[in-house]
Amino acid sequence: MNYKQLLIVFEESFKSGFAGCRHTCDCGIEYFDDSDNRWDWDEEELKSLRSDPDTIGVQGAVEIIEFEGATYVLDCDCWRQRAERIIGFIMGHDYQIATMLNTVQAIAELEIRRRPKVRGIKPLNPLTH
Description:
The chain is built from 4 helices and 6 strands, in the order αβββαβββαα. By secondary structure, the protein is α+β, with helices and mostly antiparallel strands.
């Protein structure tokens, strides 16, 4: 798998699923959707965004990627250098990371099995309660 493929996998894994008309990247640059004015922009607001040298218009909704406690705009290049280092770490320690995750999962499963069972009571569905 080459670097470009790994970056795509990283991006898909850490995209937040959030997209909106504007967002400020962790690096401080504000991005806004400048395509066909699909949003309910106030005319002065859109004019102001387009004339501001500290904002960047993109074609389509502004998507977000989050990792290490920071929120980045997917169209910004600032997150890619850090992602490259993280990918290098993950790929360079894949066996150790897999061992750690498998161990954490085994411990969690053991803790669940050790919990007392109450018979005759149907558990609540955590997705609806």
